[in-house]
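Q: For a teaching session next week I want to show students how multiple molecules come together into a single three-dimensional assembly. I've collected the sequence lines for a complex. Could you give me the predicted structure tokens for the whole thing so I can convert them for display?
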Amino acid sequence: MNDNKLIHHRFTALAVVLVLALPLALASGSLATELLIYAMAAMACNLLLGYTGLMSFGQGIFFGLGSYASGLLLLHLKVSMGVALLGAIGIGALAAVLVGWFAIRQRGVYFVMLTLAFAQMFYFLAYSMVDITGGDNGLLDIARPNLQLFGLELFSTASPWRYYAFVGVVFIAVFVVMQGVAASKFGRTLLGIRDNEARASAVGYNVKSFKLLAFVISGAVTGLAGGLHAMLTGIAPLSSIEYHVSETILLMTVIGGTGNLFASVIGAAVYVVTADWLASVWPRWMMLLGLLLIAVTLYMQKGVWGLLERVALALRSGKGAEAPVAAAREKEQA
Amino acid sequence: MNVYLLQLVNGIGLGMLYFVLAVGLSIIFGLLRLVNFSHGAFFLLGAYGCFQLVSSGVDFWWTLLLGPLLVGAFAWLVEAFLFRKVYHLPHELHILITVGLALVLQEAVIMYWGPLGNNVAPPDLLQGVVMIGDFVYPKYRLFVIGVGAVMAIALGLILEGTRLGAIVRAGSESAEMVSLLGLNIRRIFTMVFAGGAATAALAGVLAAPIRGVDPFMGVEALGIAFVAVVVGGMGSFAGALVGGLLVGIVQCMMSTIWPQGANLMIYVAMALVLLLRPNGLLGRA
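A: Of course. Below is the structure for the complete assembly, covering every listed component.
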């Protein structure tokens, strides 16, 4: 137990280090912010994929709805930052209840297909509700509010790096909460369901409600990410709810690896940074992404995290570390 | 003339197209237990194959044959060199590999033909409309209904009446048992996969003159194929027909009532069916 806690804190420390180090590594504050935002979305996806065994092609629903919700709140009601983000979280959770209720009644591949069908449904919903979402044009000119308390300005988010600092704090908070969820009794029950659903059910767990709750947590966090993204770019375009967003979030999660939550952060980082670099070199870089996905699936099922772990182990065994460490790590992974 | 009647007939035409699109997905899943997320990309390749051949002077009629053949041959290679290696892996990994393949194919299409859409003209023989009394209907759509019907009957006969069909149906129950009986199930897997891809390509060729071609039609088609098989019941040949028709009819009816929401209503209809019958209309529990 103590050991678990230690690993727990170690991951949190890694997350903090990442937030502090990104400004040194990246020239653009927007890019660094985008990285953290997608890292949150990928963690939420990992809670489903890695911890519950649910592959969701519908994460874009929550991301897009979060974008629209915070955009609408800011445009029409001029609300504060906190309210806008709460709106994004709320709508993400609500949509997850709805989609989850339908999708979780189905298992395995049916679940996967349903999440994709629902992703399409919400895309067309956003497309057809022109009065609310702006249809093809999306929502434009969303102003980013500063942080205020009782009308008193606490922190300006006007510059990219200032906004990054705010998102960094949110990111660490989300990371700690998600770690807590994963390590809690609830999180370990999810692992039990992932490994053997029939057994979990036979022992007396209400499998469906556990899955639904995981889905709702995932939807809420993804909605938050979407809301933050709308404030980053100042727009909530129709493309924020496209299938492509769902695909991207899932890709990041898979590339990072599903063994722990920090792996998703790495997955998002790898994706966002390479995408930024490749997109300027070769507009069809997504093709490489497709190939990478095939390669990861075939040869590197633990993702980039698994690769890093292997490298670390190789380095350590070179220095004569004992096998038990590796075994403990393997256990942690499973 | 009653506009709803016209839209019903339109819906049947579109539904037959969706059947051709979805049936391969359903049969591939039934036998191989593979959820093929690259099915939409095979549809896309078929449509662009048609566009390329027609615009370089090949007769449309030939594309009906060449499109599915070329895509089927490509799928044959993909199955033999990629998917054959992964059947033992969990479903989730199959899905990821097919998603990766779909991404590669879509980007390849954009790279070669550009990101913008193009139109494909139907052949001269099928341009214009048919008039039966005061009933007016585009010839080309009538042709699509015909092709869909021929496909449905042919596939039905193959599945129910031939030795190959019997093996496919038996394989859907237990592939292991079939291979223990001394049949080369691997060969049949490859054939069914290539055949399924070819039907998706045929749907793509048929769709090209109706809706034109664009690189993102693959994703759209994948969503519709999923709805058709989820509504009809996965792995069931008749389910794909019923699901396809239902989707087509709903889409066409709604395009009169609420044009902007026609696509949305497809998915609402799916949710309603699932509410009443969680395993689809013809699905087994």
